[in-house]
TrEMBL record:
Subunit and partners: Type II secretion is composed of four main components: the outer membrane complex, the inner membrane complex, the cytoplasmic secretion ATPase and the periplasm-spanning pseudopilus.
Organism field: Acinetobacter marinus
UniProt membrane topology term: Single-pass membrane protein
Alphabetical list of InterPro entries matching this protein: N_methyl_site, Pilin-like, T2SS_GspI_C, T2SS_protein-GspI
Highest taxon listed in the record's lineage: Bacteria
Protein name (Swiss-Prot/TrEMBL): Type II secretion system protein I
Family affiliation: Belongs to the GSP I family.
Amino acid sequence: MNKICKQNAQHRPFNAFGLTLRGFTLLEVMVALAIFATTALALMKIAMNYTQSIQQNELRTLAHFVAMNQAAELRIEQQWLTGSQSEDITEQGEQWRIQKQSFETMSPDVQRIDIQVSHINPDDAENVQGVTTLSVFNYRQPQLEGDSP
């Protein structure tokens, strides 16, 4: 049995202290690095998608606030919109393009107004990205015959 152990020991590399060296082969290291790199890329992609999703949700929420503010202004000022309107405003720290369009309803004193809010890209003002649309119903007091406008 001693003879077999000596033969096996001769095939193993030794270091300066006479101890056998054990380690990973180059192929094993390369495979491990490839697996690590693939995993790291997948995790980075997940993190980027998560960050973009949060930014999109934040932008959509801000746009909805802007649309609700526009609807509140219509009601407070008792505006009766005819046709469509478009304006650029700064609100919530961002540039927005507001497009309002009115539609008749069955009642002549009620109109539906679609308020579309688009985000204006600060780097490229021509690149306008639609974010949200809010539909509201606007009501006006009917004019009585004795009332003057």
